[in-house]
Amino acid sequence: MENLEIILSLAATALTCLLTTLTLLIRLFAVLKKKRVAEDFIKVEALLLPFIEEAEAFTRFSGAEKKAYVLMRIAEVTFKQRIKLSTDEIGKKIDELVNLTRKVNVFSNERALAPLSRKNNKELASLN
After folding, report:
1. 112 domain-assigned
2. Whole-angstrom Cα distance, residue 35 to residue 61?
3. What confidence score (pLDDT) does residue 35 get?
4. Is residue 64 part of a domain?
5. Which structural domain range is residue 69 located in?
6. Residue range 34-70, pLDDT digits in tens
7. CB-based contact 101:55 (threshold 8 Å)
8. Predicted confidence (pLDDT) at residue 9 exceeds the cutoff of 60
9. What's the pTM?
10. Per-residue confidence at 126, pLDDT binned at 50, 70, 90?
């Protein structure tokens, strides 16, 4: 009877340790996968800006065609480096970057033009 209690106690302890280890390993692999995806996305983000700048040089193409060009170039790079990312995620990031540059450029242009308009107003007032 005592041997049975000892065996059951050891079996329960071993089962608990096994389940804890499996849970830990499953979570570890999930975190490592997320880390790899995040690192891949960071690599792709670093490549996006030069490709977007390159696409902006094409003045005769529409925004959708420029986006398709950038997606094509990123697809080439991700294929060569064996990076698996969805084109939807990359497309969203391209849209975010383009919208950000539009906002920054509008703000920069307004700030650059503001001193000129004040100066022009003073010059015009002095002429009268």
Report:
1. yes
2. 37
3. 93
4. yes
5. 37-127
6. 998 888 888 888 888 888 888 888 878 888 888 888 8
7. no
8. yes
9. 0.57
10. low
Distance from CA of residue 66 to its chain's centroid? 19
Nearest to 96 by CA among 60, 37, 45, 42: 45
Chain position carrying tokens 């003073």: 122
- Tell me what pLDDT residue 122 has: 54
52 close to 68: Cβ distance less than 8 angstroms: no
Q: Does residue 116 form part of some domain?
A: yes
The structural domain count of the chain equals 1
Specify if 10 maps to a domain: no
Please write down the HEC assignment for all residues of the chain: CHHHHHHHHHHHHHHHHHHHHHHHHHHHHHHHHHHHHHHHHHHHHHHHHHHHHHHHCCCCCCHHHHHHHHHHHHHHHHHHCCCCCCHHHHHHHHHHHHHHHHHHHHHHHHHHHHHHHHHHHHHHHHHC
